[in-house]
Design goal:
Elements: H1 2-6, H2 10-23, H3 31-36, H4 61-73, H5 78-93
């Protein structure tokens, strides 16, 4: 590695480094990391209740992706796109996205 670095041979240094890296065992996961990867967020007491006057629509990730795909394709005018985007942002802040 030193010879490759002194010779300014980046490709050779990368090969040596990657060969060394392949010999290392992956770090074991701690129980806390394993549990953290299994946790799913839920509603809590602090999650805002939908305010009166909004549509109360529950949005899914698929609905939101579909909206942005339609927007990119030009299927919506600016006023309609702005209205829907504001509704999505409100839904996110109120916890109405599943």
């Amino acid at each position: 590695m030193d010879n490759a670095a002194q010779g300014l041979d980046a490709e050779r240094a990368a090969i040596v480094f990657n060969a060394y890296k392949a010999t290392l065992a992956p770090a074991p996961r701690t129980p806390a990391q394993q549990l953290a990867s299994q946790v799913a967020p839920t509603r809590s007491r602090n999650t805002p209740v939908p305010a009166a006057g909004n549509s109360g629509t529950i949005w899914t990730q698929r609905d939101i992706q579909s909206f942005y795909a339609d927007l990119r394709r030009g299927h919506l005018d600016d006023a309609e796109a702005s209205r829907i985007e504001q509704e999505i942002q409100l839904a996110v802040s109120e916890g109405r996205v599943r």
